[in-house]
């Protein structure tokens, strides 16, 4: 039941938050370099000490949203794969279904962690 609820929540989160972030990004691109720099400062780059508290807070919140979207992507992906296997008629045994449900949740967390560790490593090297 938890995997089914998380599947719906992650799908809605990807659709709503992902679309809003994408539209904000497109709007910032269309508005010019200053708007795009403000977008990037809100969601990615570490804030420099000379900027205000508001920008530091939005920077942290932007990263939380990006990590959340990454988790939602992997949760929805792995849950969809689980449902795909169930549609073939396999995996309905209680023990098997419970195992795959746990693997979906743990896999989403591990994949999100691995993705962000890779991004952090690349950001430090670049």
TrEMBL record:
According to the UniProt entry, where is the signal peptide?
A: none
What is the role of the protein in this entry? Answer: Membrane-anchoring subunit of succinate dehydrogenase (SDH).
CDD domains, alphabetized: SQR_TypeC_SdhC (cd03499)
Which Pfam families does the entry link to? Sdh_cyt (PF01127)
Query: What is the name attached to this protein's record?
Result: Succinate dehydrogenase cytochrome b556 subunit
- Per the UniProt entry, what species is this protein from, by scientific name? Sphingopyxis soli
Which keywords accompany this UniProt record? Heme, Iron, Membrane, Metal-binding, Transmembrane, Transmembrane helix
Please state the protein's primary subcellular location. Answer: membrane
Q: Which cofactor does it need?
A: heme
What domain of life is recorded for the organism?
Bacteria
The subunit structure is: Part of an enzyme complex containing four subunits: a flavoprotein, an iron-sulfur protein, plus two membrane-anchoring proteins, SdhC and SdhD. The complex can form homotrimers.
Spell out where the chain crosses the membrane: 53-78, 99-119
Q: Which SUPFAM superfamilies match?
A: Fumarate reductase respiratory complex transmembrane subunits
Family, according to the entry, reads as follows: Belongs to the cytochrome b560 family.
Localization terms from the record: Membrane
Q: Does the keyword Transmembrane helix apply?
A: yes
